[in-house]
Amino acid sequence: MPSEFHQFANLPTELRLKIWKHALQPISPSRPRAHFFSVTNYKEDGDTLKKLRVQCHLGSDCEINHGTTYCLAAPKFGDSHSWTNNNPSAYLLDYGMWNACHESREVIEKHYKMNHWTAKFRQGRSSMDDNQPVDACVPFIYPHSSGSWCFAIHPNQDLVCLQPINAGTVGYYRENPYFIEDFCMVDYAIGMRGFPNLALEYDSSWYDGLDEIRNPNVLFEEMSPRGLFVRIIVWMVESYSRNQTLYLIDYNLKRTRTEDSHALSNKRKVFSSIDRRFVEASPNWGDYSDTWSRSALEFVDRINDLFGGINPTHFCLGHGFEGDFGCNGCDTWEKWGWYNIWVHAEVLECEKAE
């Protein structure tokens, strides 16, 4: 029998909606995703990325004084910043659904319960002790010449990796220790927790000269990516952020022995992107003996040794240490207790997606 091909727009509405729903990428709390953004201090970095910034979904209705200094923008994987070129971010999995047509956008907005979460964010919350939903979905807007691209993340469960345009202009402790709070989409005032799973990309150059440093305050003052790492750790300790983790992504770290992926997911956190996954590394040297040297694991261990068990917000970081336990300005050990950086820091290895 001869068959007739119908254009998609001429198909029955019920069939079109079913097709759109099949096109959705499944999202669930059991599979956190990984997203990448550049972060820029536009007052000091200039307007280089002005046309690649994301905006708050609420627009002029947003009542939070947001974006006063820092902005999120397209990441850089290659020679230039781009939302699409070589970008592994999981938010691109939904790019087609957001941009195909009005009908597909309605389907994905319903899938993510955008109206529900937008209403929640407009209401705000009355108490810092309110339950913070794991499945909260935050919409971001990227305006461009042909319209606006909307994409969504689950900031309370997803990994958000920030690529500073200039580590010396982002989050310098004495001027703005809480630079994460400049992003209104994840502000505590609307029931969010900032980025509980925050990440930076590690480079082996961070280890250069580290063995010669005796006082962690040197790193704290350093206008470098590793200095930013230390300052974020200090911010997390100072704000009692025990539910937040700062991850270092080490692209060169490889396990000596392979592990079953399903068993691995049950033991450690795994964040998925388009073509790769980021797996929480074990701090056991034997698991990474071939790539341990100058790795993110060795770097964090060395920073932990520099702290010497001292809470990094303690004033003794400024006047130096004396002996194995104690410092020049403290009378007794009991005054400052013991600190382990692994409470706030973790390392992620990168693997190809299966």
TrEMBL record:
2EXR domain boundaries: 5-114
InterPro entries for this protein: 2EXR (IPR045518)
Superkingdom of source: Eukaryota
Protein name in the entry: 2EXR domain-containing protein
Organism: Trichoderma harzianum CBS 226.95
